[in-house]
Amino acid sequence: MDTNASIEAKNSELALLEGKVQKAKGQPKMLNAGKYTVGRDLPEGRYIATPIGRGSNFIVYSSGGSLDVNTILGSYGEASYTFFADEGSSIETESQVKLTPIE
User: How many C-beta atoms lie closer than 10 Å to residue 60's C-beta?
Assistant: First the structure.
């Protein structure tokens, strides 16, 4: 193992021990205002939602229809929100949001 790979492996191990969130493989997904279905519009997984611009309401419903997340992202709310999106869940956003996959 080369030095850079060794350092990266140790940094990942340290982050896990410290309880830090690590970025997962995969590119962030930008969602415009609208409704989206997990499994069709984006893959199932854990995400950090961050607003683009001023932000707005951000809502996630489970595949069974129950409310999982109901928050305001942005200027008048949270800077970001971490959540898990199951297959069949639906996401509603009233303005553009960036979803970054995490482990």
Answer: 23
Q: Which fold has domain 22-102?
A: Jelly Rolls (2.60.120)
Tell me the per-residue pLDDT of 45-64, one tens digit each, with 9 for 90 and over.
999 999 998 889 999 999 99
> What are the two backbone dihedrals, phi and then psi, of residue 23, each rounded to the nearest 5 degrees?
-65, 135
Q: Is the predicted pLDDT of residue 6 greater than 70, yes or no? A: no
Q: How does DSSP assign 14-75, residue by residue?
A: HHHHHT---BPSS--EEE-SEEEEBTTTB-SEEEEEEESTT--EEEEE-TTS-EEEEEEBST
SS3 11: helix
Full-model pTM: 0.73
Tokens coding 28: 């962030």
